Amino acid sequence: MKALLFTCVLVPWLMAASAWRFDQGSHLIPGSVPGKQLNGYFSDHLKLRRARRALPPADEPDDSPIPVEGDATDLPTCLLCVCLTGSVYCEEVSPDMTMVPTLPKETAYLYARFNKIKKISTKDFSDIVTLKRIDLTGNLISEIEDGAFSKLTLLEELSLADNRLVKLPMLPAKLTSFNANHNLLKTKGIKANAFKKLTKLVNLFLADNELEAIPHIPESVRILHLQNNNITEVNKDTFCRSNDTYYLRLNLSEVRMDGNPVVLSKYPDIFTCMKILPVGKYR
Hints:
Largest sheet: 9 strands, mixed
Helix content: 10-25%
Structural class: alpha/beta
Radius of gyration: 30 Å
Protein name: Mimecan
Subcellular location: Secreted, Extracellular space, Extracellular matrix
Strand content: 5-15%
Family: Belongs to the small leucine-rich proteoglycan (SLRP) family. SLRP class III subfamily.
Number of helices: 3
Distance between the termini: 115 Å
Shape: elongated
Order of helices and strands: HHHEEEEEEEEEEE
Function: Induces bone formation in conjunction with TGF-beta-1 or TGF-beta-2.
GO molecular function: growth factor activity
């Protein structure tokens, strides 16, 4: 009789204690939640961390604490960025990204826009010879070492728009598109042969800078943007050839020179080889 009474009292007490321990969701106690439910909790927790970091589903975040402040170089690239096969997306990274991140081998496309990168050095891309496109738009880049892109023999597209560049480095020969809009470039900051060897260049964007004259434009260029600079004059060899009256420049299909001080109507003979007239001031 006493044993039966003890059992009747003990069993309900154990059930109540177990229920109380199970209800404490914010204070999980080892052994208090069934293994299946515990695994579910950690699964949801990892999903939440993954969403906050905007990682692709294939990436597994670690359990180390995420620093609130600091420099992005303290963390592995693929925890800060989205790394897909051959592509790395590092846009508006937090904490601040102040230098080019270490890239996975065989990266072909890098998008590191709207960060606070200040300088490009020769070592940043020295081991990533597979790069075909680099987009560094919207950073704080004021210096690029002259050999920074020298080993990128496959590079076709390069954007340095919206930075603080006052001069350009040597550029890879296979570029088809180069964008340096919205910088602080002056004519003296562009070497005479900066574009001369770019025989495959199709798009050249140098708008919203401080250029006083037009640099050498390769024959291959189709779209040329030079608007909103300080260009005051053009010469007979800027687009055509003064010693060849039969020369035709048929590739150029768009030339913008609006927003410059130069009055293009003063130079009627310099566009005779072109099939279009530049957009700009004529009066």
